[in-house]
Write a structure and sequence with these properties.
The chain is about 65% helix and about 0% strand. By secondary structure, the protein is mainly alpha-helical. The protein has three domains: about 5-85, Orthogonal Bundle (434 Repressor (Amino-terminal Domain)); about 90-275, Serine Threonine Protein Phosphatase 5, Tetratricopeptide repeat; about 360-435. A two-stranded parallel ribbon has the order 1-2. α6 (about 120-130) packs parallel to α13 (about 260-270) and α13 packs antiparallel against α14 (about 280-295). The longest helix has 24 residues, at about 195-220.
Length: about 425
């Protein structure tokens, strides 16, 4: 069958929608206005295959479905105003389409396959556009209902409370955070606000997008996670927050490393570093860059990045540490340095650093402790200490299951095949049984 390359077909396919899905969403958009649309599967096919141009009303409904502002709909330019099927490019009016695409991608998973993560090439291109693009402030809206500043303050306060809960409680907040982000997106789209309030709304959308993205990432929903991180990047682009923009690129790079694509991670981070200012933020980026370089066996560049991360972390500054990297500490520096050295083959020194980092970690960071324990188990195995590895891996698994940290559980399960050669070592049978339960 010949692939349908019409921009409308590509745009809906990128969002996991069939022709009937699109027709149903168009009819729903009309109903929200108290009107009716005759859109059905056959009509969508005529637009996509026969080259028939939708009328003005249908194009406006299509724009609403895809999150495109009506003032960007040029009826005569159909289909050129449709959103790109891949990553939405950074632009002054790109925030809403990116946010709505991320939210839509998470809805009704039963009707589609799980979205794949964005390609490495597309992510590097996006990072390059961020590094070289012109920044623009979030503009005011002169139409719609006026937004009360006290209501925005309430959203900011409660969002902060939700995102700073302990991991054990935060596992229950996913639907609430989705709802908050949907509300903020609607306020940006339909509310009337001043430029300062607009910047606060974009900042709130960015913060919520980052938290929602990590929630998806922890549950292995990489396609959704990358789209929320990208939506957050668009929000920071609109508000001109360079360091927060770097946070989203750093998270996308972390995901690339996690998915065994360290080359993409390094290329993203190199671009992110060009516009990142705060020493703590630069330290985190250098630390993640070291991890990606070590995975590629680039020893000299890895050590250079680790040295930069250590220096930057201790660099004094009057500026407050950005919230997204305020958790970065000597513990993280030690453990990630250990992970980098382990990839370079320096297992014993790596193991020592990971142990030191775990000892420095505050009790409040349970999820991170579970991850660090899994790293320790890996180096114990590499050093030929299966009994100690089993004890540490079991502790990590039990902690992760108790607090609801599926990514940590996945780390331990990834180690299980390496334990099967030590089935008689102390603690290994018990670990295998717990992992299989």
């Amino acid at each position: 069958m010949t692939e349908n390359t019409h921009p409308l077909a590509l745009a809906r396919s990128a969002r996991g929608m069939t022709g009937p899905d699109l027709a149903r969403e168009i009819r729903a958009a009309a109903e929200r206005r108290g009107l009716r649309s005759g859109a059905d599967r056959q009509r969508v096919r005529k637009w996509e295959v026969a080259g028939i141009t939708p009328d003005r009303e249908s194009q406006e409904y299509i724009a609403e479905v895809f999150g495109v502002p009506l003032d960007e709909v040029d009826v005569k330019a159909w289909p050129n105003w449709l959103p790109d099927a891949g990553v939405i490019p950074l632009a002054p009016a790109s925030t809403l389409p990116a946010l709505r695409e991320a939210l839509r991608a998470s809805m009704d998973r039963s009707r589609r396959t799980v979205l794949s993560a964005i390609s490495g090439t597309a992510l590097v291109t996006l990072a390059g556009a961020w590094a070289t693009g012109t920044w623009s402030e979030a503009t005011k809206r002169a139409q719609g209902k006026a937004i009360d500043e006290d209501f925005v303050a309430l959203l900011e306060q409660t969002s902060t409370q939700l995102t700073t809960l302990a991991t054990q409680q935060r596992q229950h907040t996913g639907p609430l955070l989705d709802a908050y982000l949907t509300t903020v997106t609607d306020l940006i789209a339909h509310g009337r606000y001043s430029p300062p309030l607009g910047i606060r709304l974009h900042a709130l959308a960015a913060s919520l997008s980052q938290t929602v993205a990590w929630h998806r990432f922890d549950h292995g929903l990489h396609g959704e996670a990358s789209r929320f991180w990208i939506a957050g990047l668009h929000s920071t682009y609109a508000s001109g927050d360079h360091d927060m923009g770097a946070a989203f690129l750093s998270d996308l790079a972390y995901q690339a490393s996690w998915r065994d694509d360290p080359r993409t991670a390094a290329r993203i981070l190199e671009r992110a570093l060009t516009r990142t200012h705060h020493p703590a933020a630069r330290s985190l980026l250098q630390l993640r860059l070291a991890r990606s370089l070590a995975a590629q066996g680039e020893r000299r560049a890895t050590l250079r990045a680790l040295s930069a991360a250590e220096h930057l972390l201790s660099t004094p500054t009057r500026d407050p540490v950005p919230g997204w990297c305020s958790w970065l500490s000597e513990a993280d520096l030690a453990v990630d340095s250990g992970q980098s050295l382990n990839d370079l083959g320096e297992t014993r020194r790596a193991h020592q650093l990971i142990e030191e980092g775990q000892a420095l970690l505050p009790p409040s960071r349970d999820k991170t402790r579970g991850v660090f324990l899994a790293y320790r188990a890996k180096t114990h195995l590499a050093l030929g200490e299966p009994d100690q590895a089993a004890a540490v891996a079991t502790e990590s698994l039990e902690l992760a299951q108790r607090i609801g940290a599926p990514r940590c559980v996945a780390l331990v399960h990834g180690l299980i095949p390496h334990f099967r050669g030590f089935s008689t070592a102390q603690g290994v049978p018990e670990l295998l049984a717990k992992a299989a339960a």
